[in-house]
Every structure is written in C-alpha cells, then in structure tokens.
Design brief:
The chain has 489 residues and is mainly β. It has 2 helices and 42 strands. It has 2 domains: 113 residues, Immunoglobulins (Immunoglobulin-like); 305 residues. The protein has an 18-stranded parallel sheet that branches. The longest helix is centred in the first third of the chain and has 24 residues.
C-alpha cells in the first residue's frame, strides 16, 4: 500500500478514535447543579404484614437519573443506620452499616435498590408500624424514600404435638411450621377470632377431635403465612394462589368435629376426612364456612358422616367434594369449581367433576342428601353418582341447581331440580380480574337459574346467608350459600 494511503488511513482511525473517546467521556461528565436531582419509582415502599423474627420477602424500587449528564450520589443511607430493622442492597452491593458513598449513575440511567426487613419481637398483640427512610444526598440536595412495614408478634409452633385437651388463644396469631397435631382422643378447641397461619407444606393433623367455632363477626382463619404478592405482570396476593400450605387432616374413627364460621383457603387440600373403618364412623359438622382454592380437593369424605350447611366449597384442581361411605347431608350450600379461571394457579384442573359420589361395596353404607344447593363449575358435567344402579342409590336431591350435560332421569331421588343449560349465567364473578381487582363472587347473578328455587322450609333453618343477608326477605329464597342482592350504587 502506498505511504500516502497508509497515512490517510492512520489519520482516519485517529480521528474516529478521538471522536468515540470524546463521546464516551462526555457521558461521564457530572452535573453539580442543585436542580439536577434523582427521581424514584415510588415515594413510599410498603411491606405487607410480617411476623416478628421472620425475614421479609424482598421489595425493590428504581432510582432514576432523568438528567442529560451523569450524577454522583454522595451518600445513600438508612435513617436508622446500622440499627435499622431494614436492610439495603444498592445495585447489587451490601453494607453492614447500610451506608453507601459516591455512587455514580449515568445520564438517563437507573439503578435498583432492594430492601428487606426483620421485625424485632415486641410486647404488642396487635400489628405495629415499623418505619424508616432511605436518604439520598446529591449535589447538596437531600431526598428520601419512606419505608413502611407492619410487624406482628405471633406464637410459633414447629412440629407441635398436643397431648392434652387444649384451647388456643386469640391474643396473637399462630405461625405453624411442619405441623400442628392433636393426639388421639384429645380435643383441640379453636375459639372465635383465632388465626392460624401455615408455612409452606405445614398441616393441621387431628388424631382426636377438632372444635373450631367462630362467629360471623369473628371467623376463624386458616391460611398460608405469606402476605406479599406474586410478581406477575400485575401482582397477585399469595393468598389467592393455591398450594401455600398443606391442609387439614381428620383421622380418628371416633372423632367428633365441628367447624362453624371457619375460612380455609389456598392450601393443597381443604379438609381430608378419611377413615378406614367402615363399622365405626366419625362425625363432622361444617356450617357457615368458606373452603376455597386448593391444588387438589376441597372436602374428601371416606367412611364418615358429614353435615354441611350454609357453606361454600370452591375452586379445586380436582374434586371439590368427594363422598364415599357414610351419610352426607348438604343444605343451602354452594359447590363451585372455576379453578382454571386463575392463570396463575400452580396446576391446571383435571377432568373430574365438582362433586363425585362414589358408591362402592367395601365402603360403609351410604346415603346422600342435597337440598337448596348449587353444584356448578366450568365443565359441562359437575355432578356424578358413580354407582352401577343409580335408581337404587339412597339419595335425596331437591330444590337445587345442578350443572350436568345429561340430566339424570327424574326418579324419586330428584325433585324440583334445575338442570343446567349450556349458557347459564349462574354467579356474579367466576374469575379473578387482576386489573379491576374483582375476586370470585358466588352470589347468584340477577338472571341466575338458581334464584327463587329453594325450599322455604329448609331456607328458614338458615335465615342469614354466608354474607349475613336475609334470604327470606323476598319470599323466594335462592339455592346456595348466598342470596342475590342488587348491586349497590
């Protein structure tokens, strides 16, 4: 190559390198004007309720430099310093004292700040507010983002076996790891207003008796221990996601169990009520309860007598109610399975119906009663009696709405049944709308075929529905656990 051309090429490279170097450096020219400050994705970072001594989940927010030149942040710190109950991670860096100096942020760039909190035990029974702030100093200007958490003292139980008759207290909630179990022939009493929070895979194991009697004003709560949200495109509360804990298991063949005004939500199983002895049957009374959102089953009954009244059992990955062996009475209750309406559930629904009545010779003699009930869901058939001789099955089904593609022949077992049509609108809301924050509502819709079909005599035994509304007010009570109410304007 001629020397002249080599010289021109060298000069070209030098010129372009100088231009690139100038532009690269120009991005790192820092502004020191006091009006050039930071911007934040939020002014307050709020944590949901956190149990004392348990670390929180991690929350985060963004720090922006909206300016055309780089900024040097002189200091980022917690107002409470190293003694704060909060902890910081600034763009991937940790500091034991929660102090970070001379951080650079390029023009129109951003950085993440991650925050955790551990609430120290205190003497309070009610939740307490824990607050602090993250303080920023840039170009002599001070800014801050507020931090807020709600701390709750609790009674911690880890793999706890109770050997004597025991009544829980209500002054603090219970946090259960592994299991809470009651020994054989002993009674666990859960009083009104008691709250039991179960950690991942924890269970309530009843080898004796369970007596859980809440009230409409003070229901008993059994749920998972996470109060934060799953980070989907729109955050979803963990308590809306099935599989947060194990479930309730009732084992004793002589057990006498009572559940009144109990809300059980978002486990793998709601209530597994199983007994291998077909000659001695335990009893279970479920009234005014809401058993909702499970990976597998809502209520499994095997060789046991059960009475369910004015209750909701809903949204399960498999059967919502499975009955086999014993006498089973359902009055004024709603069984609804729209599990697949949640696209954030950990599994999809299988093809089993909402209600399966399984009559097998090896089981205890069976009898089933459904009056003033709703059996519905997303499939065309949500009710099956699995017996070789349906007409001989000992059952009474009356004044109820049942979703079934092909109706059973109208024998003496079925009276005043409203069999489903494909396009029936049964309930107000059969899905979770994350954007509008509308959750499942199994109150009958204004045009629901379940309206006005209940037997008034049965309805009079339960004059208030599960929402506390008078189901007798209009003289034509609806089937199911809820009475239709006009939309409030």
């Amino acid at each position: 190559m001629p020397k002249k051309n080599i010289y021109h090429l060298f000069a070209f490279l030098i010129l372009n390198f100088s231009w690139l170097s100038f532009n690269s450096c120009s991005d790192e020219i820092f502004t020191n004007r006091s009006e050039d400050t930071l911007a934040f994705s939020t002014d307050t970072l709020t944590f949901d309720t956190i149990f004392t001594s348990n670390g929180s989940t991690t929350e985060k927010f963004l720090v922006y430099n909206p300016n055309s030149k780089a900024l040097k942040i002189s200091k980022i710190s917690l107002g409470g310093g190293k003694n704060s109950q909060f902890r910081l991670n600034v763009d991937g860096y940790l500091n034991a004292d929660n102090v970070f100096n001379d951080l650079e942020i390029s023009a129109r760039d951003s950085m993440y700040i991650f925050v955790e909190v551990t609430v120290k035990p205190n003497n309070e029974d009610s939740p307490v507010i824990i607050d602090d702030s993250i303080q920023f100093e840039t170009n002599g200007v001070k800014q801050k983002v507020r931090l807020e958490a709600f701390g709750q003292n609790m009674i911690l139980m880890k793999e706890k076996l109770i050997l004597n008759d025991t009544t829980l207290t209500t002054n603090k909630p219970y946090l259960i790891y592994g299991y809470l179990a009651i020994d054989s022939a002993k009674t666990l009493t859960i009083p009104a207003g008691c709250k039991l929070y179960f950690h991942n895979n924890a269970n309530l194991l009843v080898y004796g008796n369970l007596k859980a009697e809440g009230t409409a004003q003070k229901p008993i709560i059994l749920r998972g221990d996470r109060f934060d949200k799953v980070k989907f495109s729109t955050p979803v509360p963990y308590n809306y996601v099935a599989g947060q804990w194990g479930g309730v298991y009732l084992f004793w063949n002589r057990g006498k169990h009572i559940l009144n005004h109990v809300n059980i939500t978002s486990a793998y199983v709601g209530i597994n009520y199983s007994n291998n002895d077909r000659n001695i049957l335990p009893s279970l009374e479920i009234s005014n309860c809401k058993i909702h959102n499970f990976v597998y089953y809502g209520l499994v009954v095997q060789n046991g007598n059960v009475n369910v009244s004015n209750s909701e059992i809903s949204n399960t990955g498999s059967y919502s109610v499975y009955l086999s062996g014993g006498k089973h009475v359902f009055l004024q209750s709603t069984i609804a399975n729209y599990y697949d309406s949640n696209d954030f559930e950990p599994s999809s629904r299988d093809k089993t119906p909402a209600v399966l009545i399984m009559g097998l010779n090896r089981l205890a003699p069976m009898e089933t009663v459904f009056r003033n009930c709703i059996v519905a869901g997303g499939m065309e058939t949500e009710f099956i009696i699995a017996s070789r001789f349906i007409k001989l099955y000992k059952g009474t089904f009356a004044n109820s709405y049942i979703r079934r593609k092909v109706a059973y022949e109208l024998t003496e077992q079925f009276n005043n049944i409203k069999w489903s049509n494909k396009n029936d609108t049964i309930f107000k809301h059969t899905s979770y709308d994350e954007i509008k924050d509308i959750y499942f509502d199994f109150m009958p819709d204004s045009v629901s075929p379940a309206r006005g079909i209940a037997d008034p005599g049965i309805a009079a035994q339960f004059p208030l529905d599960l929402n506390g509304n008078n189901r007798l007010a209009d003289g034509a009570p609806d089937a199911g656990a809820y009475e239709w109410q006009p939309t409030k304007k």
